[in-house]
């Protein structure tokens, strides 16, 4: 897969992950042996002979002290002589994509501050698992800080991978790195502090990535938003001195025609959320710089489509505002008019995400008319109550095939989804005699939020991803690091770069 030189300076610097046919004549100072439930890879025997190390005995000793080949487990063994300074054993579990993704992340974490790791894996790893390994390497390399003292070790520079055969698996690794990079980039966008990040900053970052990856881009400022009737985005952003933006990114594959399938993504881009006049408590504001995870994931996804050769047309819409209290802020009991004319009575200014997404969905329906419409957001705390943390994201959909396709992509990417109901009986909970609907109710919060958005989907095949439940990790674990996970970027990228993302949708 060809890499675009022009794009390198706008993307994170990831380890160079290369495939080495056969065993190298000489290796790095650290050799990594990936051990699955079946034991040492066959190539490790020869590697051990070259190192002068009885790896079977080493594994036996390490297992006696607690090492097991569970996914991501590690045990380092220093060598006292020879070119290689140490051997690292890394568990790969059952060899599934999820377990290989964990192993790749563990290797990347171990390699911080090192120049090179030579890694030996089992022969015959399936493409999906090897791709997941590369994703793990990218995600495990993630760092973000503004430290001036003790910034920590940088990511490992190079990882060479081999199974001892003459096979060439470089293309699989390349794909995995690009998909992993979308997760890395979405984390970076979500982790950037809000004194640096506002809607204009997000638009500038999206524009920069678009220029590097061959996307068309258009940005609406506050004057253009007012002229075109984006009432939801304007209302949410009017309390801040840093005005809102609406960002459109377009990807068109080579050879596209009127029959080429077309998908629109709509992402919530709230660069900081205080709750507005319905002010959050102090604890509730912590981490609200991440409330643009959905929009960041859309930007990251769009940035990978050309490099991965996506076969469908895709538009990404990011609805960005900063929700602040002030003398100009919107109020409970206000009635706002969205793009396309539908009205909403505001009952809670902290239910702002659905107001900006509504404008994006209405724009997509009225102006773009795609074959499928997907919105993505850290929308409700209620989804965490329903699904817990770091297990599943919430999936609401009006089309079974769209739901199945997204859920399958989530399984493949390690960002699993659980389909939630959309019972019409709850629609009464968001009704009002004053406007077409209210933005908040006392009913089941994630469901009524989805029903609110459904009204803006225009009868198109539509899905809503509420990823608050998987958008933040409490610790460094597996491919996740403490803080933002960049939830949704790898899922969407995986889905949109399958052979037929819109299969069965009608």
Give a nutshell description of this structure:
The protein has helices at 42-51, 55-64, 97-110, 127-140, 170-191, 199-213, 222-228, 231-237, 282-285, 293-302, 305-308, 353-368, 382-387, 400-413, 445-454, 489-496; strands spanning 16-19, 30-35, 74-78, 86-91, 116-120, 158-162, 216-220, 245-251, 262-273, 313-323, 335-337, 343-345, 372-377, 393-397, 417-419, 437-438, 462-466, 472-473, 483-484. The chain is an alpha/beta fold. Helix 5 (170-191) packs antiparallel against helix 10 (293-302).
Distance between the termini: 33 Å
Identify the quaternary structure here. single chain
Strand tally is 19
What fraction of the residues are assigned to beta strands by DSSP?
A: 15-25%
How is the biggest beta sheet arranged?
8 strands, mixed
Helix content: 25-40%
* Radius of gyration (Å): 24 Å
Strand order of the largest sheet: 7-8-10-9-13-17-14-15
Global mean pLDDT: 94
Shape: elongated
Helical stretch tally: 16
Unreliable stretches, pLDDT < 50, 5 or more residues? Answer: 1-8
Q: From the helix content, strand content and strand pairing, which structural class follows?
A: alpha/beta
Features:
34% helix; 19 strands; six-stranded mixed beta sheet; alpha/beta; 506 residues; 16 helices
SSE diagram, text form:
Layout: E1 16-19, E2 30-35, H1 42-51, H2 55-64, E3 74-78, E4 86-91, H3 97-110, E5 116-120, H4 127-140, E6 158-162, H5 170-191, H6 199-213, E7 216-220, H7 222-228, H8 231-237, E8 245-251, E9 262-273, H9 282-285, H10 293-302, H11 305-308, E10 313-323, E11 335-337, E12 343-345, H12 353-368, E13 372-377, H13 382-387, E14 393-397, H14 400-413, E15 417-419, E16 437-438, H15 445-454, E17 462-466, E18 472-473, E19 483-484, H16 489-496
Parallel strand pairs: 1-6, 2-4, 2-5, 5-6, 9-10, 9-13, 12-16, 13-17, 14-15
Antiparallel strand pairs: 3-4, 7-8, 8-10, 11-12, 14-17, 18-19
Helix pairs in contact: 3-4, 4-5, 5-10, 5-16, 8-12, 10-16, 12-15, 14-16
């Amino acid at each position: 897969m060809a890499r675009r030189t022009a794009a390198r300076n706008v993307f994170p610097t990831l380890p160079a992950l290369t495939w080495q046919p056969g065993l190298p004549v000489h290796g790095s100072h650290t050799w990594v042996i990936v051990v699955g439930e079946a034991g040492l890879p066959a190539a490790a025997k020869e590697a051990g002979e070259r190192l002068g190390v009885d790896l079977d005995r080493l594994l036996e000793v390490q297992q006696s002290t607690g090492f097991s080949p569970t996914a991501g487990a590690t045990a380092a063994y220093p060598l006292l002589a020879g070119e290689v300074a140490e051997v690292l054993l890394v568990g790969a579990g059952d060899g599934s994509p999820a377990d290989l993704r964990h192993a790749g992340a563990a290797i990347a974490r171990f390699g911080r501050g090192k120049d090179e790791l030579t890694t030996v894996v089992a022969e015959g790893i399936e493409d999906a698992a090897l791709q997941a390994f590369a994703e793990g390497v990218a995600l495990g390399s993630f760092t973000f800080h503004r430290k001036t003292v003790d910034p920590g070790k940088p990511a490992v520079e190079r990882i060479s991978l081999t199974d001892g055969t003459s096979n060439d698996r470089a293309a699989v690794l390349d794909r995995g790195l690009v998909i992993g990079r979308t997760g890395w980039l979405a984390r970076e966008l979500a982790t950037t502090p809000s004194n640096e990040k506002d809607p204009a900053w997000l638009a500038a970052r999206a524009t920069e990535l678009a220029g590097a990856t061959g996307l068309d881009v258009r940005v609406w400022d506050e004057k253009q938003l007012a002229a075109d009737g984006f009432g939801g985005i304007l209302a949410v952003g009017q309390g801040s001195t840093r005005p809102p933006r609406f960002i459109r990114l377009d990807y068109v594959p080579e050879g596209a025609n009127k029959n080429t399938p077309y998908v629109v993504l709509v992402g919530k881009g709230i660069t900081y959320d205080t709750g507005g006049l319905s002010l959050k408590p102090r604890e509730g504001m912590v981490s609200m710089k991440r409330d643009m995870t959905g929009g960041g994931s859309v930007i990251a996804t769009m940035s990978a489509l050309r490099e991965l050769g996506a076969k469908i047309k895709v538009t990404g819409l990011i609805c960005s505002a900063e929700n602040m209290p002030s003398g100009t802020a919107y109020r409970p009991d206000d009635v706002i008019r969205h793009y396309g004319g539908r009205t909403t009575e505001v009952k809670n200014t902290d239910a702002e995400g659905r107001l900006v997404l509504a404008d994006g969905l209405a724009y997509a329906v009225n102006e773009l008319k795609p074959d499928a419409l997907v919105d993505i957001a850290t929308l409700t705390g209620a989804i965490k109550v329903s699904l817990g943390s770091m297990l599943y994201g919430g999936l609401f959909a009006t089309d079974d095939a769209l739901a199945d396709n997204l859920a399958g992509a989530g399984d493949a990417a390690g960002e699993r989804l659980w389909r939630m109901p959309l019972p019409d009986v709850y629609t009464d909970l968001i009704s009002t005699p004053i406007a077409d609907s209210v933005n908040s109710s006392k009913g089941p919060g994630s469901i009524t939020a989805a029903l609110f958005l459904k009204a803006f989907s225009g009868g198109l095949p539509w899905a809503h991803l509420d990823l608050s439940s998987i958008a933040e990790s409490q610790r460094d674990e597996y491919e996740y690091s403490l803080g933002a996970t960049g939830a949704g970027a790898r899922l969407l990228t995986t889905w949109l770069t399958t052979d037929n993302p819109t299969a069965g949708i009608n």
